[in-house]
User: Fold this.
Amino acid sequence: MDNYLSNEDILTRLKHLHSTIECGIHSGYPPCCIKFYITQKIWMPEEQNSEYIKKIIKRSNDLGKSFGYIPCPACLESGNDVKVLPCPNNIPCEHGDENAGSYLIRNFMLSQQLLGLKNELHSSPSPDGK
Ligand SMILES: [Zn+2]
Ligand SMILES: [Zn+2]
Assistant:
């Protein structure tokens, strides 16, 4: 288990760490979730990582809403409502899971599914007509 990530995989994650944190902050994610993401989520072995994403999707279906981001376990459980803000100039930052060093296409696709949810939120017209 200790060596499931290659040095290259570890370095890729470390190199993207700062921008991943920045993106979490400007996206309006709760600090607990940003901390969870950078300290645990991106270091999870592939199987654990997929399991967690599946839990988010299941919880989203149960609650009838989308989180639009990766919540920490406490926020996942509470169904914490987070207003996900767009990245600067509405250009999504390129350091999601895939650039943080995803190792399996399956995870990439699950991530895209979650990012798709985020984009859906952004493209829906806002009630105040902005
Ligand atoms: Zn961003
Ligand atoms: Zn949280």
